[in-house]
Design a protein that fits this description.
The protein has 540 residues and is an alpha/beta fold. It has 20 helices and 14 strands. The strands form two sheets. It has a nine-stranded mixed beta sheet, with helices on both faces. Strands 10-14-13-11-12 form a five-stranded parallel beta sheet. It is elongated and about 95 Å long. About 20% of the residues have low confidence. The structure holds zinc ion. It comes from Porphyra umbilicalis (Purple laver).
Length: 540
């Protein structure tokens, strides 16, 4: 039998003014001074978590984070950091880097109607829409681009205003610059990378507290360690240069633009970057480091309890590297060796004392690769039988990492030579050639060879072209030449009017192929700018 509820004695007071009408204290009388009532509801699901709770929420809401790179990693990182209630979220990207349609399958902070909008601005709109309590700002990212930048504030001065930096960039020079800036500026760095189906993640420049490192040794039974102080391990503070003293050769560095990427892969790494940043920020030390932050607790408001107590239960991914193999659905965490005593930026013997005036892009292009004294991976700490996952691609000769932590470092790309310079007479403008190709005489006179990988050719191709990927082009030249000369079958003189025109995606690999063809005596020409410059050809 249903029992009807008692009628209310009066309308329930609203949090805003009803309690005042009844003579009761306002809603904020029930919450800590720096945890306003609206935060109680918004963050309730993480506030309920014993390992997080109001102490960490207050610390997080009083902290400042800088995300550099607003693409596949930066989007999920910003959305989750903003949703979690970081106090101040600054977004930086290269000036002029705007949202493109090709970004949208993975850069989930952007939308179709914001194509053409600068990425940092677009992402700021998305974060503000989720959480208006967060102070979101857009900052000039040119200081982190990696090139020489005379004048202006140094990168280390810029990062020093924040409690954590998230490196969500996609090039090696920027990674080293940001690393150096964070070391010199004294800021923890959450570094992520993803391309293809692989990703990696670690936290540089972070010293774990005594409790933070008080994890049971690998292989021991999993036991709670909250509040258990064990002898600290070696320092957890390492930097990118400690792990990878020199950048990879440019020929070994690819990008999502050239190598492709499955959208959820950077999504996974970006979300985990947000998680690590939250753990870093939700500690009292991070709050205390920014006393001038307008979002910091007012004077007289006690900061959260001691770092040791607040840190219990959450372990920052410092001096460890998480490797994600999306193709296999596998996560592996490996422990990195301690800081290098001769590290160029974080050791007492450092030679890098400022990023000012340093052209990191040129350095990353031209620095000869040297062997490191020891491999970066010390032991497989969790979950892996093998000490080094296949995706780290360790150079067995030197014991050094073959492909350091650039955006694409986890995938060993095929080295390729820089495209040769060709005389102007060997090159054709894309628009002019396309106009003649689509005439009966033009098509009949041309053997159009597309040297892109087969997968790209299957994606979209010029009608009538043939696909010979550049890797096997040189070997195929004799056969292709026969097809030219095969014009004999069509009658005398046919060979004289047929020509080999080589095209690729952007006009680089086609130059390699033209050089190979010319070396074999075939007077081939290529298309300037490749299919990217071909009028009406689908962009990808
Ligand atoms: Zn170092």
């Amino acid at each position: 039998m249903m029992v009807p509820p008692d009628p209310p004695l009066a309308a329930p007071p609203s949090a805003a003014n009803g309690s005042l009408a009844l003579g009761l204290p306002p809603a904020d009388a029930y919450t800590p001074a720096n945890l306003p009532p609206e935060s109680i509801s918004r963050y309730s699901r993480q506030l309920l978590l014993p390992v997080f709770g109001p102490t960490r929420q207050i610390a997080l809401s009083s902290s400042r984070a800088l995300i550099i790179g607003c693409g596949g990693l930066g989007c999920p990182a910003a959305l989750y950091l903003g949703a979690a209630g970081v106090g101040h979220l600054a977004l930086a990207d290269r000036p002029g880097d705007v949202v493109e349609v090709t970004n949208l399958h993975r850069q989930v902070g952007h939308t179709t109607d914001r194509v053409g909008v600068e990425k940092a601005e677009s992402l700021a709109i998305a974060v503000r829409a989720i959480n208006p309590l967060v102070n979101v700002t857009v900052v000039d990212g040119s200081a982190f681009a990696g090139g020489d930048r005379p004048g202006g504030a140094t990168a280390e001065a810029l990062v020093a205003a924040y409690d954590v930096v998230l490196d969500c960039t996609d090039n090696v020079a920027a990674r080293y610059l940001i690393n150096d800036a964070c070391v010199l500026g004294g800021v923890p760095l959450v570094a992520g990378a993803a391309v293809g189906t692989d990703g990696q993640l670690t936290v540089y420049n972070w010293e774990a507290s005594a409790v933070d490192v008080a994890r049971p040794p690998t292989g021991s039974p999993a036991t709670p360690v909250v509040g258990t102080l064990l002898p600290p391990r070696k320092s957890s503070r390492v930097c990118l240069r400690c792990v990878f003293p020199v950048p990879p050769p440019p020929s070994c560095v690819g990008s999502c633009d050239t190598a492709g990427v499955l959208g959820p892969v950077p999504g996974v790494i970006g979300v985990l970057q947000a998680l690590e940043a939250i753990k870093v920020l939700a500690t009292p030390a991070a709050v205390a480091a920014a006393p001038d932050d307008p979002a910091a607790p007012a004077p007289g408001v006690p900061l959260p309890p001691s770092g040791a107590a607040a840190a219990a239960g959450l372990t920052v991914l410092a001096r460890r590297m998480l490797l994600f193999d999306g193709a296999d659905g596998a996560f592996t965490t490996v422990t990195l060796r301690p800081a290098r005593p001769d590290c160029a930026v974080c050791s007492p013997a450092r030679t890098v004392t400022s990023t000012a005036g340093v052209d990191y892009a040129a350095w990353a292009r031209g620095k000869p690769r040297a062997a490191t004294a020891a491999p970066p991976v010390a032991v497989a700490a969790e979950g892996a039988a093998a000490a080094v996952p296949r995706s780290t691609d360790v150079d067995t000769a030197s014991g050094a990492p073959a492909a350091p932590a650039g955006s694409c470092s986890v995938v060993p790309f095929q080295p390729s030579a820089l495209p040769p310079h060709l005389p102007p007479a060997w090159r054709l403008p894309a628009d002019a050639f396309a106009a003649t190709y689509f005439t009966p005489a033009g098509a009949a006179a041309t053997l159009l060879v597309d040297v892109r990988p087969a997968a790209q050719y299957q994606l979209c191709a010029v009608p009538g072209s043939v696909n010979v990927p550049v890797d096997g082009f040189a070997a195929a030249v004799p056969d292709l030449a026969t097809r030219l000369i095969g014009g004999k079958d069509a009658g005398e003189g046919a060979a004289a009017i047929r020509r080999m025109v080589i095209v690729c995606r952007r006009g680089n690999q086609s130059r390699v192929a033209v050089a190979a063809a010319r070396g074999a005596g075939v007077e081939a020409v290529d298309i300037i700018g490749g299919l990217a410059a071909w009028p009406g050809f689908p962009a990808y």
